[in-house]
Amino acid sequence: MSVLDLARAEIRNLAPYSSARMEANGGKVLLNANENPWPPHGDDGQHLNRYPDPQPVELVEKLAAIYGVTAAQTLVGRGSDEFIDLLTRAFCRAGKDGIVISPPTFGMYAVCARIQNARVREVPLRAEQDFSLDIDALLKAVTTTTRLVYVCTPNNPTGGVVGLKEIEYIATALKDRAVLIVDEAYGEFSSEASAASLLAQHDNLVVLRTLSKAFALAGARIGVALAAPEIIDLLRRIMAPYPLPATSVNAALKVLSSEAISEMHQRVGLLCAERDRLLVAFAALPVVKKVWPSEANFLCLQFADAQLVYRTLLAQGIVLRNVSHYPGLADCLRISIGRSLENQRVLAALSALTEVV
User: DSSP per residue over 26-67, as a string?
Assistant: First the structure.
């Protein structure tokens, strides 16, 4: 059985849109895309009057090398969100198929499914075990109409990880049944190896990465999907003709230079050290009921009254993420790890709340 047998038949048979840039074939006099022949004012050699390459070869090859896969297994798009949406539309028939998620986790999995009118089955993380993944329950939740199973590692918003052996076990168990999507948006902050190393053995595996977090390109919106070439081709069929602006591509190429990657690893090390320091410091505060261990660039904290803490810190200009609405995270706030002075400001603000909350 091919993994494409799990996809919607109408998507498999869809003739993709052929953009003018795809048909250029290295031409020099470009008169096929109705572009303005003059660059805009202040272009500075970026050629923004021309449509960008749908899948810039240099960018794709650099990312493939970083993640240890081939260019044929690599697709770039507008953040991981775009791929979550594309995967849902490619594999889930509206009103018939569904996905399995493990809350509390990233909310876009369920949002994209519900937009597509796909069923959402929830297998909660084990709160009593630091929100670890319940693999047996996850697999039992998979039915004949399940098409996508999501595993977020490190998980957002709790920060826990799923080991590579566990990922491989799940992928094997889901063979010919469903596509396993491993979201590694925070992978650079984790000690666990990437599931990308399993792609050669599992054609039903998709790994999502991003340049928004460790590479500091949240504003450029560069996401990466790593998968079997058949899945990459399928997603390209329904992808927008020009997903990435030239300015975003240029920014991505700069942060993927050897010098920039070295700087990224240095900064990731600093953030991880700050994260571990803050975990101990937060746990010692009377106002904090619990801090969960994290292998991402954030910590999840529980308070007696998260709303009061949130409002009090906001009044001081400190913005945290209120995640109290997530299942199992009542009265919890998520704190991103910032620069040392920012972290000290948060720590001081929480310390001052001892007599208030």
Answer: T-SS--SS---SSPPTT-TT--TTSPPPSS-HHHHHHHHHHH
